[in-house]
Amino acid sequence: DVLNSFEKVVVIDHHRRGPEFIDNALLTYHEIYASSAAELVTEILMYLDNVNLTAMEAESLYAGIVIDTKNFIFKTGVRTFEVAAYLKRFGIDLTEVKQLFQSDFETYVAKIDIVKNAEILRGKIAVSVCEEDYDDMPIIAAQAADELLSISGILASFVLCKVDKVVMISGRSMGDINVQAIMEKIGGGGHLTFAGAQIAGVTLEDAKKRLITSIEEYFGNE
C-alpha cells in the first residue's frame, strides 16, 4: 500500500530477482554480483559531483557493506574495496562501526545456546531450533547462524525461531552449498551464502521437517 502511494519509485537491489520484484520503477539499479545495496548506493554517489557525506552517513553505508560481506569475507570484489576507500574519505571511525554490531551479555549467551543445541546433518550442515522467545529474536537467530559457520567442517547453517505465529529461518553458507536454493523450496529466498524464509501458521517442528526435506531434495540422490 505504501509503495502504491508513490508515483516515482527507484529500486536499488542486489538480491536475485524474485516473483515480487518491482518492475514499474522509474529507475532500477539491480546488480546481483554486488556485495550489498549499500555498495550500489555508494557507487551512485561516486558518480555525482560535490557529494559531501557526513561521517554518520558514510559510517551507515560502510556498516551495510560490513554486515552483508561478514567483514569483507563474502561477496567481496575489487569494487567493494574501492567503495569502502571512497567512504573512508568522509571521516569514518572504524571503532564506532564495530561498536554498532556489539551485543549485550544476554544476547551473546542466547547465541551460544543456539549453537550448542545444533544438529549436524550430512556431517557439514548445522540446523538449530530456538524455542526461547528472546528480544530481537530474528537478529539473534541470524547471528547464531553466522556463528555456526565458524565451526570446522560446517559448510552451511540454518537457525529456526518463532516470532508471534511466524517461523523464521536464517540460512548461511560458506559458498559450497546454495542456501538460496534450499530456502526457495520453502517459500524463501536470498543469496547463495545468505538466505532466509518465513512460514506462517506452522510449528517449529513442522518448519524443521520442511527444511530438512528441502535440504535432502537439494542434494538429491547424493
Task: Give the helix proportion (percent range).
Answer: 40-55%
Q: Helix count?
A: 8
Radius of gyration: 19 Å
Query: Got a strand count?
Result: 8
What order do the helices and strands follow?
EEHHHHHEEHEEHEEH
Question: Given the helix and strand composition, which structural class is it?
Answer: alpha/beta
- Dominant shape: globular
Range of strand content = 15-25%
Distance between the termini: 45 Å
- Enumerate the strands of the largest sheet in spatial order, edge to edge or round the barrel: 3-4-5-6-8-7
For the biggest sheet, the summary is: 6 strands, mixed
Describe the structure.
This protein is α/β, with parallel strands linked by helices. It is built from eight helices and eight strands; from the N terminus they run E-E-H-H-H-H-H-E-E-H-E-E-H-E-E-H. The chain has helices at about 35-45, 55-70, 80-90, 95-100, 105-115, 135-150, 180-185, 205-220; strands spanning about 10-15, 25-30, 120, 125-130, 155-165, 165-175, 190, 195-200. A six-stranded mixed β-sheet has the order 3-4-5-6-8-7, sandwiched between helices.
